[in-house]
Amino acid sequence: MYVKSFFAATVEEALAEGGREMGPDALLVQSRRAPRESRHLGECEVVLALAAAPRSTSGEQAAPAPSMLERELAALRCQVDAMRRSLTHAAVAAPRWLAPSSATARIFTLLVEAEVSLPLAEQIAEAVAAGVGPGADLPRALAAARAEIEKRFEVDATLGREAAAGRVVAVTGPPGAGKTTTLAKLAVTYGLAARRPVALISADHCRIAAADQLRAYAAILGVSFELAETPRALAQALEFHRGKELILIDTPGLAGDDLDQGADLAAFLHSRQDIDTHLVLSASMKSADITRAVERFEIFGPAKLLFTRLDETAMLGPVVNEAARTRKPVSFLTAGQQVPEHLEPATKSRIIDGLLSCGAAAERAAA
Ligand SMILES: Nc1nc2c(ncn2[C@@H]2O[C@H](COP(=O)(O)OP(=O)(O)OP(=O)(O)O)[C@@H](O)[C@H]2O)c(=O)[nH]1
Ligand SMILES: [Mg+2]
């Protein structure tokens, strides 16, 4: 297989240059913002592949200029990358949807620019091509892409388990993810504003200041507050407040090495079928870090994913990647520090709009 990178100011220009050199059979393997070390060659990099090297039409090849050498090096690195990602099958057996000028290739590029994982972006673009044909125009392909993305993740902006009488909700997640702030936003929006009696419980036994933060919110909001330092105390607090319509439990932000400190609490929350645990994650984290956090916090048995800091990232790919990978529904989104304004129930259209507009914005920025 012959794989080569093309750099230019825009994805379209790089594709055009690649198309000229590699011919109409070239398949798009990857499109992305050029890595820092090769950005002087162009802001955008596209990697094209052919089953065999193109035949030279001009006979003699000119001696490569230094920049050509650098291009070759970058191409080589891409080749290794592409092989490592086992994209070979896509490049060799890929249907026409990856042809550089097709709307489906454009969809693929948009998704990758939005940091959707390569396998998921491929899956979506392939399904779009199968549905509308690789020759469809962009608006049709985009509409089909929305439908395909929609099928691949769930949303559920409800609080509490359906079967449970009272609504008991816990938030868990990495340090600083936004758990306590989000809990306060939920307390206002789904408790006070809906005239439901609310109790806030802090199970954050690790740092005194952490419980104080929630205590302060409870005082401002005029709702009950309890500090529950052990699972036993938490069980008692839940029993005491069982008449409340909404009980919100905050937990400590445990970093990797400290997770053991939360093992008892995790086991307790996991075992209680009446507690709806949301895993709070920053949408601005890299996909791989989100996956690692999801795996570590699985001991808490979270049923839903709640994403914060949407105001800090233009790329919603990681949100969709994780929701699609885990099939856990996304519950709420937050996009700022303001309590309670910066909280919204997750909807598919909000997430897909964000996803596609951030891909388009990245393309525009690169142009
Ligand atoms: N920009 C932005 N900041 C946020 C968002 N949500 C929370 N924050 C801020 O993030 C910081 C940490 O929020 P906390 O709610 O204390 O986070 P936490 O997960 O409870 O932190 P620990 O208890 O220390 O693990 C605060 O300054 C919040 O105002 C958001 O959606 N966007
Ligand atoms: Mg906190």
Description of the structure:
This protein has three domains: 1-94, no CATH class; 101-152 and 348-357; 167-346, Rossmann fold. It contains 13 helices and eleven strands. The protein has helices spanning 11-22, 66-84, 88-93, 103-113, 118-132, 138-151, 179-192, 208-221, 231-240, 263-271, 287-296, 317-326, 348-366, and strands at 2-8, 27-33, 44-50, 167-172, 198-202, 224-227, 246-250, 275-282, 304-308, 330-333, 344-345. The strands form two sheets. An eight-stranded mixed beta sheet has the order 6-5-7-4-8-9-10-11, with helices on both faces. A three-stranded antiparallel beta sheet has the order 1-3-2. Helix 5 (118-132) packs across helix 6 (138-151). It binds guanosine-5'-triphosphate and magnesium ion (MG). Residues 175-181, 210, 253, 308-309, 311-312, 334-337, 342 line the site of guanosine-5'-triphosphate. Guanosine-5'-triphosphate binds at residues 175-181, 210, 253, 308-309, 311-312, 334-337, 342.
